[in-house]
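Incident log entry.

Two folding requests arrived from the same account within the same minute. Monitoring flagged them as a possible duplicate submission, but the sequences differ. Recording both here for audit purposes.

Request one:
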Amino acid sequence: MISYENVKDKKGVLLSLTSLVPLEFETLLIYFEQVWNEYIVINHVNIRGRKRKYGGGRKPVLLKIEDKLLFILYYFKTYPLQSVIAVQFGMSQSQANEWIHKLSAVLRMALDKLGQMPERDAPALKDALQNISHDEEAAIDGTERRRQRPKDGEKQKEYYSGKKKPIP
């Protein structure tokens, strides 16, 4: 079973699983834990109609916050089938699905809090790149993605050249 305890001292393995070195992981972990605690209070502790105190019931497979962050980073790096990641982390497929949805939202909020959210809007990206100093690093993911062709003929011309064929 994959756990942070097993990989924390293996820099290469952690890098392979998450694309982060230990210092980057630990930095993100601080923000991730803050957002996780806020998320739990909002979505589980302070809800109406709660029949028992939060924390009752079966203990989750991903008990430690480090394992939660490792799980979601590994998922986003490799995109395995949910049944595969479930086996790797010692849970059922339905539990993996639930964790993916919860932790995706938490990771998004943590990255936003850290100021590391990926920029999706081209004009905003241009502004962000102009504000970067020479000693900072930036990465651009230029992955081409398929796009639904518009029905309107004029709009089709704007988005489709006819020269590039999809890769099977």
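Request two (distinct sequence, not a duplicate):
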Amino acid sequence: MRPDCGFLAGAVLLVCGLLFGGCTVLKSPYSTGARQSPEQPNNVDGFLAYYRYVSGMSGEELKREYIATNQVYAKSKNDNSRLQLALLLSLPNASFRDDTRALALLKEFPADKAGSSSQLKDFALLLSAYIAEHKRLDEKLKTEQSRNEEQEQKLEGLKEKLKTEQSRSDELEQKLEALKGIERSIIERQQSQPVITR
């Protein structure tokens, strides 16, 4: 097997995991009873294992992991902590999800041009493409939702207008009926009066 095949398989696993992460909870290879945090990943396999690890976390655990990872990145600002934080920020359904910040982090990857792994560069590129596509679809969805809300408001306005017109039409009909009633009473009065002959 060529060395690139393992990376390709790992990349495919990441994309599938990211796409279906909201629907499926993957078991962490690190969890045997009590959850213990793995060491900071430093290769593609490590990042994929880390993704599986955080995918199994509850909302509160994820928040704690995010805070800890954010602090590590703020102190070290190395490529591994940058990639780890970007991966966390791209997690589906995470309350702290931030595609813009994740893309900004990945844009600066790798900071150490000479010492970085080509597989990690490819992994970062793949992650960046996934996040950019998610961001595009999310913005498109928000635009559609905004358009739908505008249409609903217009529809509500038309309904109100129709109700006003219906009310006005009912008033006019009542007035017309009243006028017809007056006309009938005048005719009846005229018919009931005796005819005077000279």
